[in-house]
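Deliverable D4.2, example record:
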Amino acid sequence: MIAFVRGRVAEVTLTSAVVEVGGIGLELNCTPTTLAELSLGADVTLPTSMVVREESLTLFGFSDADEKAMFETLQTASGVGPKLAQAMLAVHSPDTLRRAVTSEDAKTLTAVPGIGQKGAQRIILELKDRIGAPGSAVPATPAARAVAAAAAWADQVHAGLVGLGWSAKEADRAVQAVGGEAEQQTADGGQPDVAALLRAALRTLSKA
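Output generated by the structure prediction step:
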């Protein structure tokens, strides 16, 4: 999956943002709070979660790692899909949701469109033991962010190739082919240049 997106904000709508990465515009579904933090032309790094369906690939973007983690945790409850999870984060912060679940506050959850009393009770029952206590989120350290960025280049290149029409198997081969170049870029603690690696992968596919 695509763990994060780094690039220039090319467009912001009421429900999504387009981030240009290596000449490719990736559309991210975001909450109003996240969208309010974005400015056209600004360089951003947004944690992302990819939702794969038979007919679509959808990227959701978040203001920070805690919001992303909460989005994915919420979907482990039966009846909560990506749209409802995003709606919950549009209405409440991650810590407010933790507090509501751990204190069995169904009223707070029913403030979210699409969640009734029974749905709120089910979410509380299923998530109470794994959603964490309020204030339990731990921000990622610079070292952790660097490791995540280094590990994510393959996912980004793969997604870019598939988005350009190559098959998943062809994308796999191309990613493997440029693995050595990525290792060289990160050998001295640097970050992989995803745009350059994508171009290199495209060259290997063109030669095949």
